[in-house]
Amino acid sequence: MSSSCVSDPQQPFDPREFRSALGSFATGVTIVTTVTGEGVPIGLTCNSFSSVSLSPALVLWSLSLRSPNLSNFLQAPHFAINVLAADQRELSHRFAQSMANKFDGAQWKSGVLGVPLMDGAAAQLECRNETRYYSGDHVIFIGHVLHYVYRDCAPLVFWRGRYAELDSADDGSKSGL
């Protein structure tokens, strides 16, 4: 059974209803990582990731102005986007929490640019922290991808406030738009 909600242009947006509308768009789940000026690894779960350009290779993600990690990401010369695989739900939960050291017990290594790369990720994109835009209650980070790796596996997907699974049935057919 489906339901719908229509916003009234004469009334202010209901933040919960607006969030539900945005939740209609399925996203991948990432962990964005960097290191502090002292070399301490930091990271957070993020689903506001998107590609921007193929040439040059640019991606974006956004972070709340209220995030305790904001100053570290603003000052970091590099960051990594770790696109999580379907079997990394627990890792997503861990990095979504506020805790002292999210990396304790997590499997990771330092990448070419010195940023943390999560083992088992579907893709790892190491980026130069290129440009930042302040908009609304977030900062939009544009990263210039300098190094990447990926593997053929199902990604972790988030839809309507919960994790979802892709239909992995592959009948071998191909279609175009």
Task: Write a structural description.
There is one protein chain. The protein is mainly beta. The chain has a single domain (25-163), classed as Electron Transport, Fmn-binding Protein, Chain A (Pnp Oxidase, Chain A, Roll), CATH 2.30.110. The protein contains 3 helices and 12 strands, in the order αβββββαβαββββββ. The strands form 3 sheets. Strands 3-2-6-9-10-5-4 form a 7-stranded antiparallel beta sheet. A 3-stranded antiparallel beta sheet has the order 1-11-12, with no helix packed on it. A two-stranded antiparallel sheet has the order 7-8. The radius of gyration is 17 Å and the shape is globular. Mean pLDDT is 88; it is low at 171-177.
